[in-house]
């Protein structure tokens, strides 16, 4: 995956969260900062205790939510985390995300269009009865 592109996209989001499974088996999430990147991955920093030492699978979420959710951005990554106490290298493997327009009329139009496409697909697949 293009790590430089991932770094650029994450830099546009004011909040970045790291999620992983803790040693007790439960999921944990904490805020991290993007400190840099190179071809091997994203360098993350955080307060002590947020980034677990060792290597493991982890998820990374960068997001920006605006008032009334009009204009929002989300970037989600799955990947491999190798870490010390408060610094880590995160190698993203997959990426998903979206950017919603900061215009309420456009947002409602595209949400409605997407819902209509979902209904048509469900009817084609037989999950909904024909209209």
Characteristic key phrases:
alpha+beta; seven-stranded antiparallel β-sheet; elongated
Describe what this molecule looks like in 3D.
The mean pLDDT is 92. The protein is built from two helices and seven strands; from the N terminus they run H-E-E-E-E-E-E-E-H. The protein is α+β, with helices and mostly antiparallel strands and 131 residues long. It is elongated. The N and C termini lie far apart (42 Å). It has two domains: 3-100, Pnp Oxidase, Chain A; 102-131. A seven-stranded antiparallel beta sheet has the order 2-1-5-6-7-4-3, with helices on one face. Helix content is 23%, strand content 46%.
Can you summarize this structure?
With 131 residues, this protein is an alpha+beta fold. Helix content is 23%, strand content 46%.
Number of strands: 7
Can you identify the CATH superfamily of the largest domain?
Electron Transport, Fmn-binding Protein, Chain A
Distance between the termini: 42 Å
Name the average pLDDT.
Answer: 92
Helical residue percent band:
10-25%
Main CATH class of the largest domain: Mainly Beta
Parts with pLDDT < 50 across at least 5 consecutive residues: none
Q: What is the alpha-carbon Rg in Å?
A: 18 Å
Kindly identify the CATH topology of the largest domain. Answer: Pnp Oxidase, Chain A
Strand count, sense and closure of the main sheet?
7 strands, antiparallel
Strand order of the largest sheet: 2-1-5-6-7-4-3
Question: Hey, roughly how much beta strand do the residues contain?
Answer: over 45%
> What does the overall shape look like?
elongated
CATH architecture of the largest domain: Roll
Order of helices and strands: HEEEEEEEH
């Amino acid at each position: 995956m293009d790590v430089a592109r991932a770094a650029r996209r994450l830099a546009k989001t004011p909040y970045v969260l790291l999620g992983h499974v803790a040693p007790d088996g439960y999921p944990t999430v904490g805020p991290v900062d993007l400190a840099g990147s190179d071809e091997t991955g994203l360098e993350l920093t955080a307060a002590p205790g947020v980034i677990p030492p060792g290597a493991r699978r982890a998820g990374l979420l960068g997001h920006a939510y605006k008032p009334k959710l009009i204009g929002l951005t989300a970037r989600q990554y799955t990947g491999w985390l190798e870490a010390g106490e408060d610094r880590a290298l995160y190698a993203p493997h997959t990426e998903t995300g979206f950017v919603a327009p900061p215009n309420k009329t456009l947002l409602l139009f595209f949400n409605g269009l997407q819902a209509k496409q979902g209904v048509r697909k469900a009817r084609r697949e037989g999950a909904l009865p024909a209209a």
